[in-house]
Write a structure and sequence with these properties.
Helix content is 28%, strand content 17%. The chain is an alpha/beta fold. The structure holds S-adenosylmethionine. S-adenosylmethionine (SAM) is lined by residues 32, 38-39, 76-77, 79, 107-109, 131, 169, 171, 198, 200-201, 203, 338-339, 343.
Length: 343
């Protein structure tokens, strides 16, 4: 940290429900080069670049979290790889690997992965999540409203070639990709990649009706079981998190299911998210947040202020989210897009 003062005494980040936060999702930008129809509106107004935390500030935040027991950091956005010089951040945070930090990873749409895969590996990244909702070029373009499938497939291939382990994340969409999911899963498993299915969440205005997008994952699973044999897997350290996993006997691969609507999994929540402007959101599905920006810029006492803000954030971590889509939805649906909070 810039002020060089000794770290004030501070313990692990444990919330009021006894859950320890060991996982930080750090957003580095709200911008994205795609406009996925369930994620963003076609026309988005992004933050002025001057509002974003600098790379040094992001690194200071990462350090503060690691010093308080965070062992895994996922860089996200928006699309993290569209931020200029973001590789520098991977390089600086990467130096903490083996010194408090167990894993540095990212979630990306893959469009710039071919360009950055080797540098990410060199910075210490070993696993990456690539969000991909279709391997049909026309469907892909329609969901992303502008993307080229070939670019993403090339990025995935490069990532695999340099030695990164790739997991595919797929949002299940009632009309756009539900029928294609077996093909997508078979393709991922054929390349040795796990694939996690995610229920669409009511986050932000996208210009589309959520009711036309949402399909419950238990329904998808039923359909998959008509074709394949799925065996539930116990949670391990590698699969800890909101996913429950099943092995597909016929492909040998794993499918993850993230069910924020049909099955609440908050009891074991070990994560917080920070936006690219320094707001900590303790829950994706709630609006409570603490602003770290001021603490970061407080100069002489910035470490103490940062730790104080982290304590405040932890105290305010809510017990759970409560998403609803359809007739039971309430008007309090979150106006914040996933790309703002950091996916
Ligand atoms: N650009 C990166 C990417 O594509 O992975 C990181 C940010 S993106 C917001 C993170 C993840 O959130 C993606 O897997 C995306 O599909 C998912 N996502 C975005 N909006 C969502 C929503 N409303 N419900 C469920 N998942 C959503």
């Amino acid at each position: 940290m810039a002020d060089g003062s000794p770290l004030p005494p501070s313990g692990p980040l444990v919330d009021r429900f006894g859950r320890q936060v060991t996982y930080l999702r750090l957003s580095v930008t709200d911008r994205c080069d795609l406009r996925c129809s369930y994620c963003m509106a076609e026309r988005m107004t992004f933050l002025p670049k001057a509002d974003l935390l600098t790379l040094e500030e992001l690194d200071a935040v990462a350090t503060a979290f690691i010093d308080r027991g965070v062992r895994k950091i996922r860089i996200t956005g928006g699309e993290p790889l569209v931020r200029r010089d973001v590789i520098q951040l991977f390089q600086t945070i990467g130096q903490r690997l083996g010194h408090g930090l167990d894993e540095l990873t990212l979630t990306t749409n893959g469009t710039l992965l071919a360009e950055h895969a080797q540098a990410l590996y060199d910075a210490g990244v070993r696993r990456v999540n690539v969000s991909l909702d279709s391997i049909d070029a026309v469907t892909f373009k329609s969901i992303t409203r502008r993307g080229r499938l070939e670019t993403v497939l090339n990025g995935i291939q490069t990532a695999l070639t340099v030695g990164l382990k790739v997991k595919i994340n797929t949002v299940a969409l009632k009309y756009d990709n539900a029928n294609e999911l077996p093909e997508l899963i078979a393709w991922a498993h054929g390349l040795g990649m796990d694939l996690t299915l995610i229920e669409v969440m009511p986050l932000g205005e996208t210009g589309e009706d959520r009711v036309d997008q949402y399909i419950p994952l238990p329904m998808i699973r039923d359909r998959l079981e008509q074709r394949w044999t799925l065996t539930d897997l116990p949670k391990t350290d590698m699969t800890a998190g909101p996913s429950s996993y099943a092995r597909v006997s016929e492909t040998g691969g794993r499918i993850g299911f993230i069910t924020p609507l049909t099955n609440n999994f908050c009891a074991g929540c070990n994560r917080v998210r920070m936006t690219c402007t320094g707001r900590i959101y303790m829950c994706l599905g709630q609006d409570d947040h603490v602003d770290l920006g001021a603490a970061l810029r407080a100069g002489k006492n910035s470490r103490a202020n940062l730790n104080h803000a982290l304590d405040q954030a932890l105290f305010a971590k809510p017990e759970k989210h409560d998403f609803k889509i359809g007739p039971q939805a309430n008007s309090a649906d979150l106006t914040r897009h996933m790309s703002t909070t950091g996916g």
